[in-house]
Write a structure and sequence with these properties.
By secondary structure, this protein is of the alpha/beta class. Helices cover 43% and strands 14% of the residues.
Length: 397
């Protein structure tokens, strides 16, 4: 049995994995962070489920999905993370879960403080601002020093807790969508607990590419996506609430569809994408056949390190994430130091080199180009990226 680290470099193995996906001809996609592709098998299963529900309409939904299948799906998600199913509720996406957790957290009084940083996802930032306005709270915002280190990130939060003793609730992003920085969640959550601060964790980009033990992290409230690195159809996510902390989150909009106490009342209620949810068993089967999170993460980090190790040598290019294995993942951002706005270089990469990337703004370190490898990315793709970066850097050296 090969080691996971060796398997990450096995191009034959990952070529076979790539063959599971249908990929249209066109630009090389290095923007795999938005959402992930479904494998061909998952897409076919999804289509069968669409056809089945479309033909049969509400009968199987009322008799089977509502009466038992949805609970079985919650059990499978709980097994994926080693959780109690009583702490899992289905949602359409991580954003829905996080917004519900934020607006329904009932441990706040006028004058209390909330905490966010410059790396939060927009919907999380907006929700925290909204709650602050609605409840007479003070919003504290911090920016992380650049370049960030494991120690500086933890210190930033400790300083915030000490400087603002009325902080009661904070948002925390496991993997930021802006730069790809992985935050030291366990240490930050431990520091928060020392100061009586609750944490709502945005795990949207973490699940499926980073190994973690949610209970060991000490997190009581979190939201996750299944359509990024796990490989599910769009509109699949879930909410987690530690069953011992369920009373700290009110039912969403007073929902009472389920007898209390039940976490499903904390999730926005409505008709879900039933064909997509019926596809989840196939999604999880293929996820495990690829080697699960450990193998996926090792492959993604291997590909990431190939281009980063070369980009660091290039004049006029700054890679924004350190190589500390605790802080990096598939998503990594760079910038051309002679430009404030990186969009022109995103355009050049696409027009001149057939490489699709995306510009990101909003973090204290400024505009950047987000590069995200995926499961169909090859070493040839990485070599094309390296060639493009080298030529662009030399042209502006």
């Amino acid at each position: 049995m090969p080691r996971i680290e060796d398997n990450a470099r096995d191009e034959n193995f990952w070529h076979a994995i790539a063959e599971r996906y249908d990929v249209a001809p066109g630009p090389i996609n290095l923007e795999n962070g938005y959402f992930g592709r479904m494998t061909r098998g998952v897409a076919q299963d999804y289509q069968r489920n669409i056809d089945f529900i479309n033909r049969n309409n509400s009968l199987p939904v009322r008799q089977h999905f509502d009466q038992g299948q949805s609970s079985e799906l919650r059990n499978q998600l709980a097994d994926l993370l080693g959780l109690d199913p009583a702490g899992v509720a289905l949602t359409a996406r991580a954003s829905d879960a996080l917004q519900s957790l934020i607006r329904n957290y009932n441990g706040l009084q006028p004058g209390d403080q909330l905490l966010i940083c410059d790396l939060e996802y927009h919907s999380v930032e907006y929700a925290m601002r909204w709650v602050a306005r609605q409840r007479g709270l003070e919003l504290i915002e911090i920016s992380h020093k650049h370049p960030a280190t494991h120690e500086s990130l933890v210190a930033s939060y400790r300083e915030a807790f000490e400087r603002h003793p009325r902080i009661k609730l904070m948002a925390l992003t496991h993997v930021t969508h802006r730069t790809g920085l992985v935050l030291p969640v366990q240490e930050i959550v431990a520091a928060a607990k020392e100061h009586g601060v609750d944490v709502i964790l945005d795990g949207a980009h973490a699940l499926g590419q980073i190994e973690f033990d949610l209970q060991a992290l000490g997190v009581a409230f979190a939201g996750y996506n299944l359509h990024k690195w796990v490989g599910a159809p769009l509109t699949l996510g879930f909410m987690y609430i530690d069953p011992l902390r369920l009373a700290d989150i009110d039912p969403d909009m007073g929902d009472r569809h389920y007898p209390e106490p039940d976490i499903r009342n904390r999730s926005p209620y409505g008709t879900v994408n039933i064909p997509a949810w019926l596809t989840l068993p196939k999604v999880l089967q293929e996820h495990e056949e690829m080697g699960g999170t450990r193998a996926k993460g090792a492959r993604l980090n291997y590909l990431r390190d190939l281009w980063v190790s070369e980009a660091r040598k290039m004049p006029g290019i700054e890679v924004l994430i350190e190589d500390d294995p605790r802080l990096r993942c598939a998503i990594t951002s760079l910038r051309f130091t002679h430009l404030q706005d990186q969009q022109p270089m995103v355009d050049r990469l696409l027009k001149d080199y057939n490489l699709f990337t995306v510009a990101r703004n909003g973090s204290a370190c400024g505009s950047c180009i987000r590069i995200t490898v995926g499961f169909t990315t090859t070493r040839d793709d990485i070599h094309q990226l390296i060639k493009a970066l080298r030529e662009l850097s030399q042209a502006h050296a």
